[in-house]
Specification:
The chain is an alpha/beta fold. It is built from nine helices and twelve strands. It has a five-stranded mixed beta sheet with strand order 4-1-5-12-6, with helices on both faces. Strands 9-8-10-7-11 form a five-stranded mixed beta sheet, sandwiched between helices. Strands 2-3 form a two-stranded antiparallel ribbon. The chain starts with a helix and ends in a 5-residue tail after the last helix. It comes from Siminovitchia fortis.
């Protein structure tokens, strides 16, 4: 009888030890799983690499760089940023806004990248980063076809000159044309319309846009006069702190120029290859 009791107590003790060991092992496994999960999340967010998708801001209407056609945004800038994205290996989420909202949007983090015929300036470099230049431009004057009084920048003195809100041309008018009033518009079509209806004497804006408008919509109402003023270069803008992305985009831009893809896109939208 004593032997049976001792055997029974032995069995119970072994069973109790087994249960405790199982509970202890389960606790260790759960903790380990939690550590693995946190480790994976930390590694994913802190790898310092490029993202799969970037939010790209562009203008609502800046022909032939970006404009809406048949419900979709098309243009030189749109084709170029898509080619760059393919070359680097990321997707883009396109967002459009008025031109004067693009740089503030980069500063607040609403956008990662912006391509919208943005002139590279020292002032803008204080708030955003730029790629290497991808387009050489300047400023051109457009006037009504029957206007024979304005033939150069000097003839704009004391005149009302239409241009784009927040543009380098608006700054140029204020700083370089004595007595001229810069009549600024959010939408470029409004600026051209102001010249056509006589509420502005001329438009001063980026050369490719002025030339394109006069060759298309404004061919019967406007003409270009004067020289190419204030040589400028367009760059792709980035929210600060994306050095690796800027470097990769510059590499892609160089590759596209070397392999002929840039020339192909340029000729599609401007009718000739770049000089």
């Amino acid at each position: 009888m004593g032997v049976k009791k001792r055997s029974l107590w032995g069995i119970l003790l072994l069973a109790l030890m087994f249960v405790l060991a199982a509970c202890g092992g389960g606790g260790s496994k759960s903790t380990g799983g939690g550590s693995d999960s946190a480790g994976n999340e930390s590694g994913s967010s802190g790898d310092g690499g490029l993202k799969d998708t970037y939010t790209v801001a562009s203008d609502t209407s800046f022909v032939p760089f970006e404009f809406k056609e048949k419900g979709e945004y098309v243009g030189f800038d749109i084709d170029l940023i898509n080619a760059i994205a393919d070359e680097v290996g990321f997707e883009i989420k396109l967002e459009t806004t008025n031109f004067d909202g693009i740089i503030p949007g980069l500063q607040t983090g609403s956008f990662d990248i912006a391509i919208a015929g943005i002139t590279i300036t020292d002032e803008r470099k204080k708030t955003v980063d730029f790629s290497d230049p991808y387009y050489d431009a300047g400023l051109r004057i457009g006037v009504a076809v029957d206007n024979d009084d304005i033939n150069s920048i000097e003839d704009l003195k004391g005149k009302t000159v239409a241009t784009r809100l927040g543009s380098t041309s608006a700054d140029y008018i204020k700083e370089n044309i004595e007595g001229a009033k810069a009549s600024q518009f959010e939408q470029l079509d409004q600026a051209y319309l102001a010249v056509e209806n006589g509420s502005a004497d001329a438009i001063l804006y980026d050369s490719p846009n002025v030339a394109y408008y006069i060759q298309t919509k404004g061919k019967d109402s406007l003409k270009m006069v004067g020289e190419l003023y204030q040589a400028e270069q367009y760059g792709i803008a980035f929210a600060k702190g994306q050095d690796e992305l800027v470097s990769k985009v510059n590499e892609a831009l160089s590759t596209l120029k070397e392999n002929g893809k840039y020339d192909e896109i340029y000729e599609k939208w401007f009718g000739e290859k770049p000089e």
